[in-house]
Amino acid sequence: MRPIEVMKFLRQFTVLVQRNLRLIWNDKMLLGSLILQAPFMVAVIKMVVDPNCFTSNLVNVGSRTALFILSAMAAFMGTLNSYREICKERDIILREASVGVNLLAVVLSKAFVLLLIEVVQAGILAFGFVHVVHIPQNHLLFETNVEIFVTVLLMLFASSASGLLVSAIFKSGETGILVVLVLMIGQVVFSGIMFTLTGVSSTIASIIVCRWGMGALGASTDLNSRLAWLKAGFDGPMYDATVANLLNCWQMLGLIAGVCILAAWLVLQINFDRKKS
């Protein structure tokens, strides 16, 4: 892109971000749901998770379940944050594109605003979790609490990016919600928590946010040491408490987010080209 085009793109991106923030601020119902989601999830964690599941002398699978609850919540929240973001404005977006608004700027502005919101949600969810559950400090890259925050944020953002893709594909939130439900079920089934994944199921798991989130959370909390007594039925390498495993999980979450955002832009561009022709 030439410098003039870059400046035009950045100007459009800034205006679109401001507009998206203003729309959220003016929609009190949406704003309230975004604010209350994370505190509600923390309250649920407090009700169902054993605070001593990581520190009890009796090693049990409660620690693994606690991390799965956290990762599933993050994946579900991110998708629900975004699955209507594009489809509810589809006609406006395509009409503005016809007068020169860059569709990539539109998608990136949506993703950026979601990221800002999810920084706050991740902070509440992650630090609420470590306040409720006594997490041993493993210190792979940072303090374990900070690593959990980064993982939750990446999960929220990756799942919201997949929600943006759903929103770009379908013309209404009512239609898209069916796919969202399928995605949520997939987060559970292919997370590697309930079943041992092999063959095709293992391949599908490679694009599942919950699988990589669990891997990162397991690495940060040294989950393998909590499950060593079981000796079977779990994917040990998935939870290796190593910097390499943690970074790989983070990279995969970032890759999923990037691919979904680009795919959402391509879908919008194809729809616009069809409408224009």
Automatic annotation (TrEMBL):
It is found in: Membrane. GO terms for molecular function: ABC-type transporter activity. The keyword Transmembrane applies. InterPro entries: ABC2_TM (IPR013525). GO terms for cellular component: membrane. It is a multi-pass membrane protein. Keywords: Membrane, Transmembrane, Transmembrane helix. Residues 11-200 form the ABC-2 type transporter transmembrane domain. The chain crosses the membrane at residues 29-49, 61-80, 101-128, 148-170, 177-197, 250-268. This is ABC transporter permease. It comes from Candidatus Gemmiger excrementipullorum. The lineage of its organism: Bacteria, Bacillati, Bacillota, Clostridia, Eubacteriales.
